[in-house]
Amino acid sequence: LSPGAKMGCFTFIKVMMILFNLAIFLSGGTLLGVGIWVKVDGESFLKIFGTLSSSILQVVNVAYLLIVIGAILLVIGFLGCYGAQKESKCLLMMFFSVVLIIFIAEVAAAVVALVFTGLAETLLTGLVTPLLKEKYGVDETFTQIWNVTMTEVHCCGLNNYTDFNNSYFYDTHHGYPRQCCDMQEPCNSTVAAEMAVQGCFKQILEEIRTNAGVAGGVAAGIAALEIAAMAVSMYLYCQLDEK
């Protein structure tokens, strides 16, 4: 390519890099703002998004999750956008390093999720089952979370209805939650065994497997964007040596 063509290609890629990372920066700022809003004024958030949002907030602590993701996107967007604008080799290399770390972490998480699914189920059983026995029917928030989860996912307990054996709920109600009997009452061991409602862990895994194509497509798209971002940043980094 002629020097003019090379310069035109460099300028085009630089502009695309700036615009792409500006979008990331603005998205990160939006998520960070929403996360702070949820943390500071969670009541108005609940009024807008309803009861289900209350359960989600309690389970995954959406405020902190949004703040962390928003902050990461802000950093990535700033490094990419400002680094390309100022043609700073240092900022471009920092951008490349941060995206590479995130990419490696995502790959590692995917491998762990695929290989250690059984281990995850064992760990969750050891942690969650005692909580179901002690808190379900006692702690109002904890009970509401599980009621919403079991109703929406059509599941019972973490593994199955036996998770509620010798629990506070079973001892006081002389039976299982009605979700364990496909919403039939009374829900005793005979009906629960006959209905054989699956545990929530198995149901969620089944949903993930059912939508594996969509989830895999989204993951592949994100990975492709990350690889492209790293390639572009490295291209700009190398081209700066020739300018």
Automatic annotation (TrEMBL):
**Cited CDD domains:** uroplakin_I_like_LEL
Q: Where are the transmembrane segments?
A: 12-38, 58-79, 91-116, 214-238
| Main location as per UniProt | membrane
Q: Give the record's family classification.
A: Belongs to the tetraspanin (TM4SF) family.
What keyword terms does UniProt attach to this protein?
A: Disulfide bond, Glycoprotein, Lysosome, Membrane, Transmembrane, Transmembrane helix
How does this chain sit within the bilayer?
A: Multi-pass membrane protein
Q: Which residues, if any, are the signal sequence?
A: none
Which is one Pfam family of this protein? Tetraspanin
Cysteines paired by S-S bonds: C155-C200, C156-C181
Its protein name is Tetraspanin
What does the annotation say about its assembly with partners? Answer: Interacts with SLC19A2. Interacts with NTRK1/TRKA.
Query: InterPro entries of this UniProt entry?
Result: Tetraspanin/Peripherin (IPR018499), Tetraspanin_animals (IPR000301), Tetraspanin_CS (IPR018503), Tetraspanin_EC2_sf (IPR008952)
PANTHER family found in the cross-reference section: TETRASPANIN, TETRASPANIN-1
Its biological purpose = Structural component of specialized membrane microdomains known as tetraspanin-enriched microdomains (TERMs), which act as platforms for receptor clustering and signaling. Participates thereby in diverse biological functions such as cell signal transduction, adhesion, migration and protein trafficking. Regulates neuronal differentiation in response to NGF by facilitating NGF-mediated activation of NTRK1/TRKA receptor tyrosine kinase and subsequent downstream signaling pathways. Plays a role in the inhibition of TNFalpha-induced apoptosis.
Gene Ontology terms: cellular component: lysosomal membrane; plasma membrane
Give the classification, highest ranks. Eukaryota, Metazoa, Chordata, Craniata, Vertebrata
Annotated gene: Tspan1
Q: Which domain of life is it from?
A: Eukaryota
Q: Which organism is it from?
A: Quiscalus mexicanus
- Compartments reported by the entry: Lysosome membrane; Membrane
